[in-house]
UniProtKB/TrEMBL annotation:
Protein topology in the membrane: Multi-pass membrane protein
Domain Secretin/TonB short N-terminal: 77-128
Keywords noted in UniProt: Cell outer membrane, Ion transport, Iron, Iron transport, Membrane, Receptor, Signal, TonB box, Transmembrane, Transmembrane beta strand, Transport
Motif (TonB C-terminal box): 814-831
Tagged with keyword Cytoplasm: no
Official protein name in the record: Outer membrane receptor for ferric coprogen and ferric-rhodotorulic acid
Organism encoding this protein: Ottowia thiooxydans
Length: 831
């Protein structure tokens, strides 16, 4: 069997120099732009093979066939061998730094086999000549006829064990397995290695490291996720996830222990999404079972009494590896830098794959997470929007609160290899979310800074939310020939349904309090009376097709289209809040290869979002459309170990609702009161620069700068900032360098953003106010020590200089503070 996987040297890190004020984002961005431009120019000349170098491996002992498969993937070599030679044999595994040649000799110890280098740079495993076998017990065995398996291995985007921050392939944009330079859009992949190096334990941690993405931390309400000025949607393994990640007090904050990587597609993504927001798609790709045994345990301690234990075991159920399984368990308890707040988490993820035949694979998984805690939604500003001089630890919520978020996702998949190198795959998911908040509360009122009076705690005795979701994706992909050239195509259908029910009781129990002397534990439970409820069901289904045409050796054209149906139903009344049928979402991209390592591209994509507002005739407005135009240049440098990219984008959102001033308000009219027209527009444009992978052997980097300029482009607000609570400039840098000749890896992170603000109106008086947060620069450090080949200790510090800042500007009544300096120590042992 022959493996073709790119070469990835071991992880590393480097010390950072940094500036102090908000101007650093733009200054460093200019430097990064120079690096990207210079690196792409270098790519045209830096294409010569480099001498064979050592790199670190950690491959457990096991069946030789599986061990060689894994080594071929990790080393990125062409490895050919007959399974008749290897089946039934064992390998001692591999640990430490070795050249490819030395590693193969170790892996084949005791097998009476040798690896012979071929003219194409690959290796052929064959029997040793009889004279070289010595006294090996296998020397008398008969020589089997040599069988060379020369088919290319399927492109694998798996990042676990790659020891790099660069992803090789992704299909989030088109369902076609494309390299980064073949994809005509901005896609950022946070790999398993990057998560582990910097102690990223949640999806929020991951997205905070992605340039151009913004995590709006809403405290107990979860987070919202934005890119290019607009919200994003999510997927699991390429299948729609209608309930979202944690937004709007729905799911718990998803734990990273179950993930192989997170792929972030920025810009409109209607081809595979259907209805949604134009910010992009977050694809959570979960871990899969492995063909060889592997297992590890982790124990972590962190600030605010954080204690975390992770167990992960994977491997075949028999030597043939036809049935494989994986189990991940997490117990994570943590208090918060906010007084009284805490969060206790339990995670269980189990997945099984079974090769029913040589061409058919069945997989099934269960993902379960339960978060229990006491949450707050943030701290208030002064009545005029100015910042208060209060500690970040201040808690402004009911001290008797207990919130439980329980999430279960069951997945069933079937993969079928078809003739002609085609493949069909069907995936079905069923999700259940149960959220219950006892004694939930939030702040409102007009604060008198001098006295501390004026605020009140709006409370409800109980809030419950239940979500039941189903999602399906069925598609086929493969090559086809036309006009003497080979092309690729994918087509299929996907859709989802979500039934949402909520109920609140004992609502709007107001308690006046003093902001300087508030005692959260002094409140009673409140009465049971009063309440409200909601019951809606949303369904959508679409068919899509996409093809990548090989126009010539350098020019590729990607075209696609989706046809979508959508309906949101109020289950209580039986009336449709919104409905759309036969909505067309086109996709087009062209990629021109300048050299084997560089390409330029241009693309168009869009997405629609149905509207509930009605026009004067009583009909729903036509959908809001988000259209993304993008041009860019990409390069794979240093033997394809470092990916760099630069892009210009323009995102237009049209058909936004505007109140129809020609029609007076009348509850009896066809609009139900206020009529609207689909007339307003928002334009978001900017630049994106990024680099990910290995700058040099042992030096990993993931860096990016994004400028987003979002403005209204119609009506009375024409030219004004749109969503100014999202930064115009953002910079992210993560780097790690393995010190040569030592067991140490050192690294750090840098996060910078420009100032943000929000204009809004008081809930009680209607007066306008503005809240602000200045430019921000955060620095983090990490150090990893390889105690033994199987044991490592990672120490990380975030917000090194303990900057005080607002994580998100939600409103003047409650907006979260960013996390103070945090120290984490993680001990990991591999079996």
């Amino acid at each position: 069997m022959r493996q073709t996987v790119p070469y990835h040297p071991s992880i590393q890190s480097a010390a950072l120099r940094y500036g102090r004020r908000s101007g650093i984002a733009l200054a460093v961005a200019h430097a990064l732009a120079g690096v990207v431009a210079g690196s792409i120019a270098l790519a045209a000349t830096s294409v010569h093979a480099q001498p064979e170098a050592s790199r670190s491996y950690s491959i457990p002992a096991g069946p030789l066939t599986g061990v060689l498969n894994r080594f071929g993937r990790e080393a990125g070599i062409m490895l050919s061998f007959s399974t008749e030679l290897t089946n039934g044999l064992q390998s001692p595994g591999l640990s430490g730094a070795h050249t490819v040649s030395d590693a193969l000799r170790i892996l084949l110890v005791g097998a009476a086999l040798q690896a012979v280098r071929q003219g194409d740079g690959g290796f052929l495993v064959q029997r040793m000549p009889s004279g070289a076998q010595g006294s090996s017990s296998s020397s008398s065995a008969g020589v089997l006829p040599e069988v060379k398996v020369t088919a290319q291995a399927e492109r694998s985007p798996v990042t676990e064990g790659s020891q790099t921050y660069k992803a090789e392939y992704t299909n989030t944009a088109t369902k076609l397995s494309l390299t980064p330079i073949e994809t005509p859009q901005t896609v950022t992949v946070v790999t398993r290695q990057q998560m582990e190096d910097f102690g990223m334990t949640s999806v929020d941690d991951v997205l905070k490291s992605v340039s151009g993405a913004f995590v709006a931390d809403q405290g107990g309400n979860g987070s919202m996720y934005y890119s290019r000025g607009f919200a994003m949607q999510s997927q699991y393994d390429g299948t729609p996830n209608p309930v979202g990640i944690s937004n709007n007090n729905r799911n718990p904050q998803i734990d990273n222990a179950i993930l192989d990587r997170v792929e972030v597609l920025q810009g409109a993504a209607g081809l595979l999404t259907g209805a949604g927001a134009p910010g992009g798609t977050i694809n959570l790709v979960r871990k899969r079972p492995t063909e060889t045994f592997q297992a590890h345990v982790e124990a972590q301690l962190s600030s605010w009494n954080g204690r975390r234990i992770v167990g992960d075991i994977s491997g075949p159920f028999a030597e043939s590896a036809r049935v494989r399984g994986r189990l991940v368990v997490v117990a994570d308890n943590s208090q918060s830098f906010v007084d009284y707040a805490y969060r206790n988490r339990r995670v269980l993820y189990g997945v099984v794959e079974a090769d029913l035949t040589s061409t058919t694979m069945l997989d099934a998984s269960v993902q379960y997470q339960r978060d229990v805690g006491r949450h707050d939604y943030g701290a208030p500003f002064a009545g005029d929007g100015s910042e208060l001089n209060i500690p970040r630890s201040s808690f402004f919520a009911d001290g008797g609160n207990r919130t439980v978020k329980e999430y279960t996702l069951t997945t069933l998949g079937l993969t079928q290899r078809l003739p002609g190198d085609w493949q069909a795959k069907a995936t079905f998911t069923h999700g259940k979310t149960a959220m219950s908040a006892f004694r939930d509360s939030y702040v409102m009122g007009e604060l008198d800074v001098a006295t501390g009076e004026g605020l009140e705690l709006q409370r409800q005795r109980r809030l419950t939310q239940d979500f039941s979701t189903n999602a399906l994706d069925v598609h086929a992909s493969g090559p086809f020939h036309l006009f003497g050239r080979k092309h690729e195509a994918a087509f299929g259908l996907n859709g989802s349904s979500m039934h949402y029910k909520s109920r609140g009781t004992g609502y709007a129990i107001a308690n006046d309090f003093n902001v300087y002397s508030f005692d959260p534990m002094s409140l009673d439970e409140g009465p049971e009376g009063g309440g409200y409820s909601s019951n809606t069901k949303t369904t959508q289904l679409g068919a899509y097709g996409v093809a990548r045409f090989n126009l010539n050796d350098s020019l590729k054209l990607i075209t696609g289209i989706r046809v979508s149906n959508y309906k949101e139903l109020d289950v209580t009344t039986g009336l449709a809040n919104s409905r759309e049928t036969g909505v067309i979402s086109p996709y087009a991209g062209v990629v021109l290869a300048l050299t084997p390592q560089t390409s330029v591209y241009a693309s168009y994509s869009d997405i629609f979002n149905p509207q509930a507002e009605k026009n004067v005739g009583g009909s729903s407005l036509k959908p809001v459309v988000g259209s993304n135009y993008e041009v860019g240049i990409k390069g794979d440098l240093f033997d394809k170990r470092l990916h760099v990219a630069a892009a210009l984008f323009r995102l237009e959102q049209t058909n936004l609702p505007r109140e129809d001033s020609t029609v007076p308000y009348d509850p009896a009219n066809p609009c139900g009161g206020t009529c609207y027209v689909a007339a307003d527009k928002v334009v978001s444009q900017g630049i994106s620069l990024s680099a990910s992978g290995l700058l040099a052997p042992g030096w990993n980097v993931a860096a990016g700068y994004t400028l987003v300029d979002s403005k209204y482009a119609s009506g009375g607000t024409d030219g004004q900032r749109y969503s100014p609570e999202l930064p115009r400039h953002s910079l992210r840098l993560s780097t790690a360098y393995a010190l040569p000749g030592t067991s140490w890896t050192l690294g750090g992170t840098l996060t910078a953003r420009s100032k943000v603000y929000r204009n809004d109106s008081s809930w009680t008086t209607g007066d306008s106010y503005t809240i602000r947060s200045g430019g921000l620069l955060l620095v983090g450090l990490m150090a990893k020590y390889q105690i033994t080949p199987k044991t490592e200790l990672v120490m990380a510090v975030s917000n090194l200089f303990d900057r005080k800042y607002r994580a998100y500007l939600e409103n003047k009544y409650y907006s979260t503070f960013g996390e103070p300096r945090r120290i984490t120590i993680n001990l990991k042992y591999r079996f």
